[in-house]
């Protein structure tokens, strides 16, 4: 199983970024996928989850209405569209999947929101 994130970078407050996570090594369409983030000195937190069927689960109030998770099963890729970014969104963002009771993480991609 391999999860490879991309799309992070430096963006000004109010800007947008789209993160991508390319998956391989498992039947992507059969599993839910999630995005987590970890800011310096803080615990890793769940940002969004999408089920195998494309259904969405509750997201934390901190990102509700600004972040959207989606997936393209043909491309074996999950996305995180982030709008109206705030400095407090600065973190390393990780792609996550649990495949047959084993948790897998990507290497992470840095998102920095600063003027």
Structural summary, described in words:
- This protein has 115 residues and is mainly β.
- The chain contains no helices and 10 strands.
- Strands 2, 4, 5, 8, 9 and 10 form a 6-stranded mixed beta sheet that branches.
Give a short overview:
With 115 residues, the chain is mainly β. The protein is 0% helix and 50% strand. The protein is globular.
What can be said about the biggest beta sheet?
6 strands, mixed
- Gap between N and C termini, in Å? 37 Å
Order of helices and strands: EEEEEEEEEE
From the alpha carbons, calculate the radius of gyration and give it in angstroms: 13 Å
Count the DSSP helices: 0
Extended strand count: 10
Low-confidence stretches: none
Structural class based on helices, strands and sheet pairing: mainly beta
Shape category: globular
Strand content: over 45%
Mean pLDDT: 95
What is the percent of helical residues? under 10%
Based on the model shown, name its key terms:
single chain, 115 residues, mainly beta, 6-stranded mixed β-sheet, 4-stranded antiparallel β-sheet, 10 strands, globular
How is the topology of this model organized?
Layout lengths: L1 E5 L2 E3 L5 E8 L8 E6 L6 E6 L16 E6 L4 E6 L8 E9 L2 E4 L3 E5 L2
